[in-house]
Amino acid sequence: MKAVVVPGKQKGYKIEEVPDPIPGKDEVVIRVNRAALCYRDLLQLQGFYPRMKYPVILGHEVVGTIEQIGENVKGFKEGDKVISLLYAPDGTCHYCQIGEEAYCHSRLGYSEELDGFFAEKAKIKVTSLVKVGTNVPDEGAVLVPCITGMVYRSLRRAKLQKGETVLVTGASGGVGIHAIQVAKALGAKVIGVTTSEEKAAFIRKLADHVIVGSKFSEEAKKISDVNVVIDTVGTPTIDESLKSLWMGGRLIQIGNVDPTQIYQLRLGYIILKDIEVIGHASATKRDAEETLKLTGEGKINPVIAAVVELNEIDKGYEILKDKHKIGKVLVKP
Ligand SMILES: [Zn+2]
Ligand SMILES: [Zn+2]
Predict the structure, then answer these.
(1) 134 and 164 part of one domain
(2) Could you say which ligand is closest to the alpha carbon of residue 103?
(3) 241 and 167 in one domain?
(4) Domain around 319
């Protein structure tokens, strides 16, 4: 089959023929319906992910249809549409037992220790699989593990209440444009922040308010007490994000931030305002299932910038880096 393979650390990627995967006892092989490009891929190619095996197939976001099943796999059959979590939990440790498998002691990552999904077929461990209903389109399902389900879990961790106000930075990005919708689906009032006047019109269709500019805290405070900030940008926005929050506020820091950037936090500020800082990265099966349900109900609609084929992956990354695009770039093998 055709696959996008990373041959070694900081060695780029190649599109090449590799053997078709064969499922082990606790694994399935899927035909990839859609995969998705992510800024994390670029960090991986720069060598920031120390656990990567080489060579490894790139890509960690996928929806597909089961073609082959290992002998110990229960609860899934050929023809089922599934997504994979970003990682494979062992299913046995304390955290797996209590449904917090994101914290599994021996989790393995796809496109890290395990081959990823930029290929015609992919091998997935049963502990990572989540079934997708026929009412959920591929474009909505593929966004769940790394975006919509991840954001859903972050709002669950932030104990978002209906009627609270959520501010989203980087509101036109692949994460931001969907974070707005997840927060709305959970009953929040949403303020989207962007630096681009050009993109504001699109964001206005989804958010209750849009602020254009990099100094947004004063304007945000005039709109409402901000209870939760989903900061998808990082060091350029964290200061304004913290200033936007009313007392008891929660700052959710997500996204593929530059790993070399440092921010100096004034502790008195978060202490006196009772602010909680939540670093956040992944989703569990429960989060994925609940987000798939919201997607199937039409409360979260995928915003897709482009769909490329495997041999157009270069073009895909060009679009990913294009400041004018809105939404996610998908791969259709
Ligand atoms: Zn991702
Ligand atoms: Zn575990």
Answers:
(1) no
(2) 2
(3) yes
(4) 2-143+302-331
